[in-house]
Amino acid sequence: MINKRLEKLRQIMTKYNFDAIIIPSTDPHQSEYVAKHWKVREYFSGFTGSAGVLVVMKDETALWTDSRYFLQFEDECKDYDVNLHKQSIPHAPEHVQWLCDTLAENAVIGLDFLQFSKAQMDYIKEVSASKNIQLKNTPNLVNEIWADRPALPAFPVDIHPLEYSGETTASKIKKVQNKISTAKADYYLFSSLDEIAWLFNIRSKDVDFTPLVTAYALVGLENTVLFCDSNRFSATAIETFSKLNIEIIDYELAIAELQKLDIDKKIITDISSLNYAVYNAVQSKFLFQNSIAKELKSIKNETEISGAKNCMLKDGVALTKFFIWLENELPTREISEYEIGKKLESFRKQQDLYVGESFAAIVGYKGNGAIIHYTASEERAALVKNENILLVDSGAQYKDGTTDITRTVWLGGTPTAELKTAYTSVLKGYIALEQLQFPKGTVGMQIDAFARFHLWQHGLNYPHGTGHGIGSFGMVHESPQGFTTNPATSSGRTSHLPNQLTTIEPGCYKKGVYGIRIENIVLSIAKQETEFGNFLGFTPITLCAIDRQLIDKSLLTDSEIAWFNSYHKMVYDKLSPMLNSDEKKWLQRMCEEL
Amino acid sequence: MINKRLEKLRQIMTKYNFDAIIIPSTDPHQSEYVAKHWKVREYFSGFTGSAGVLVVMKDETALWTDSRYFLQFEDECKDYDVNLHKQSIPHAPEHVQWLCDTLAENAVIGLDFLQFSKAQMDYIKEVSASKNIQLKNTPNLVNEIWADRPALPAFPVDIHPLEYSGETTASKIKKVQNKISTAKADYYLFSSLDEIAWLFNIRSKDVDFTPLVTAYALVGLENTVLFCDSNRFSATAIETFSKLNIEIIDYELAIAELQKLDIDKKIITDISSLNYAVYNAVQSKFLFQNSIAKELKSIKNETEISGAKNCMLKDGVALTKFFIWLENELPTREISEYEIGKKLESFRKQQDLYVGESFAAIVGYKGNGAIIHYTASEERAALVKNENILLVDSGAQYKDGTTDITRTVWLGGTPTAELKTAYTSVLKGYIALEQLQFPKGTVGMQIDAFARFHLWQHGLNYPHGTGHGIGSFGMVHESPQGFTTNPATSSGRTSHLPNQLTTIEPGCYKKGVYGIRIENIVLSIAKQETEFGNFLGFTPITLCAIDRQLIDKSLLTDSEIAWFNSYHKMVYDKLSPMLNSDEKKWLQRMCEEL
């Protein structure tokens, strides 16, 4: 089936004289997860991973993805004529240089300009220039083949109420307008869906795992336009927006409307999210800046922080019940990873304000835990027994917040000393970064290694960043702050600020043998002010016992043991009032002093 | 006098219709220290600091420098009509935006293109474009005013023998030629003086503190041209070079000769060191790459490492004798910081193969130690008494290596607990970074904070990078590796590699009260290879006791105490054979177990 689609695509390439087509995994808003309408890469390759770029040439079809997805690719694409190219850095545009090296001078590449940001197109142009390779827009190419392509999402849009958002749309728009004034500009154009959801306090279910609304937004000094189909809004919502001088114009009309803006107007926008089709259409002058919404959104207000803490209670209760279920059930039968994931979801569903999972849960038994973005399908899930190691990374969307937590548990048998050293080093790394005090202005890349150095000392490491920002009933991976080894990413270069929510999640993975990861969400807080500056730190808000069976206590310092005991006292104190007496007893045992 | 020079400069600006002149502190090779001929900024401002840019406009003269030099500026420029603009980041081109904001549309800026790199000019062009500001070359402007301008250096050039360099010029040039072949280019153009000194194994004394030779070099696949006055070389040297197909052509002819290269030739060069006058003159196509010489040079060969270790013995002996002298002399009289610096130099002068200081020694008593690039002139040096704290940062050029070391000593009285906490935290930071094991590929910015986090914990910090590469009878600050908080610098982005020499020098500075810094040179070494990668670390090669009077032992862990004792055992074992019995006794006391 995939091969037939590729055959049709090649016929069309011949018809239009394209030597190659680049099909990325994103939508016109550079979203991480996309609506079905935009799953073009999946349609032509069969590959469902969240990151990957397909390149179709006359005699080869090639897919670039990173190490998290190699196994999944092999599984999903084995029957198709698609070759895997292994990316050394996730999301790096390594296919561009390869493609330009492969193509002849004056070749023509087809791309849907909607799916490429201005910054990405600048890079492709730069690389392709020396061979005079032409880049042509392919806006309707896919529709000629994909007859039953799903329509754009049209779900009703919900207003995210003040009791969860903590700040009115009017107040947020005022901040954007101040920014426009300061920059002596006329408009601010937003195209990132989570920025728009935050700015207008709107939510829907256009995108898997993330409560976003497909839209663009143009904020002016007096009036604002939200490009989104008006029939998705209630009459009340439209009236409320109207009072705020917010007009709703159909999504499909966005480019045509933006084209009408005067040539002498100045529009602030973010070069990394604005797509090239919009950029190309607009006559006005763009001022490229890092999005003001990104930083404002990353600093949570009191309501959002209190919502997040409330979600941790709910998640903590669900996880406690889940681990009790697992402990009781495993001696009686083998359970598939898939079923375990579903069971965990069922405990979260019982919680107040639950909306859905915040990403596809990762339940990885033994060696499967070493596949970093592993998702067990019902068919190929491994059977979990009453022994060895299990990694569970999961999260939820609640109306008052978003969660993400990883625990790794030992299910029975005798662990090796090597495994205990790795697990204990991961734990020590988590504690070191969470306990670090650092000056304001410190960026993620400067302190990421505090979660690694205990592993390094034993010749161990992990091939991913140490943590990411997280939204408030928003994206589970939220820019800009985080911890990473990569200076090219925003989380490497961005200062941590008080009242941000960020994950800390060191790990250790041995191929075919084990995967270990311990992940909490932490809140950034001001800790000390001296003549040397303002110093910040973190405080954990995730509430869930950390398995102690794999800890080699001889490797822990007194202060690490004190941290462990104090964290577990907090977990027990906060969760126990919501548990029945059997559950309380179980949690008490999990939270005993080490 | 300075004011008169500025007046003359303004007359000439009027004559040529310049609205502003930018005068940087560098030479045509982007050197850190420059020959007298290039001290143009000093000539027109009176400011002698090694970093700073002068901007002369019709009605204002402004100098940009960073916090290391504020005090020195006030002292040196108080009588002149020069306004200080405080740079927030050292070397950042903050004056460019300011100047372009200040000037009117279509204004004209004069610059000597020789003193600006291609990369710097690109930046100035970008900022000045929106106001259509013109940039005009001012090659001979200074000569019209500076009648007695010193000539370009013409000292004899020494061949740096194989017993110190460890690699022949032929072998080094072969590596460059391989790089040219791989890149399908025709030439490699070098304009950085320390790269040329390394490549041709040549040394002279053109530049203060650094044994460099003023030259350009063009390496081709068959032939090489060294642009340097041939009368600076011995007949033997010229003949030896000739056998290697190296032709020597006068320095002043470089641009004219490079202009003759065919337009279809490709020249590899480094955008950050090539000056704009050369770039502008050459017709051929440039391929901008990070200099191959930088990385090759940073990895020391066995001879260079053994030379460096030998220098540490000599420096260690000189410093031991110096500190004994200081301890004996201080009870008898007050000694000026200036005299202390000279005395230290005198002990180094007694050492084999000594050439000179590698930078102006920093001898900072009490609050003077908090001025990071403090150099006490004979006139304004403070008098050091038998009490309180003294910081001594110094280094030497020996024919077999370059040194750089800082020690901070307590001279008498009772230190405060605050001071002991700061000193002990600096020491702990030094130990943490020196003892760190980290994977290959780790860059300076990822691990710099290991030297800071003990300070951070007490609300302390220091406003400079943690260390820099160091040359082999070369530059005391040598690119590319190091430790820094700044992602924009090469030392932030460059991986550490085995056999590099780097300083580790955390500090803590309280304005007007104290300056603390502890600095050793460390050698990068391979430590462990596992399935998770290759792991590197450092080993200290500097040999000099670290003062223990300011250590609060209760803050040290057992492993830190073990490090301290083991380091001092090494210092005693290596230095004592070269000391007399009194000196041995003194050192034994300094190296006792803690």
TrEMBL record, chains A, B:
Write down any Gene Ontology CC term: cytoplasm
Residue span(s) of domain Peptidase M24 C-terminal: 534-594
Note the superkingdom of the native organism: Bacteria
Checking CDD domains in the record gives:
APP
Span of domain Peptidase M24: 314-523
**InterPro entries named among the record's database cross-references:** Creatin/AminoP/Spt16_N, Creatinase/aminopeptidase-like, Creatinase_N, Pept_M24, Pept_M24B, Peptidase_M24_C, X-Pro_aminopeptidase_P
Q: Name one GO molecular function term.
A: metal ion binding
Which keywords appear in this protein's UniProt record, sorted alphabetically? Aminopeptidase, Hydrolase, Metal-binding, Protease
| Residue ranges of every copy of the Creatinase N-terminal domain listed in the record | 5-144
What is the similarity comment for this entry? Answer: Belongs to the peptidase M24B family.
Protein's UniProt name = Xaa-Pro aminopeptidase
Native source organism of the sequence = Aequorivita sublithincola (strain DSM 14238 / LMG 21431 / ACAM 643 / 9-3)
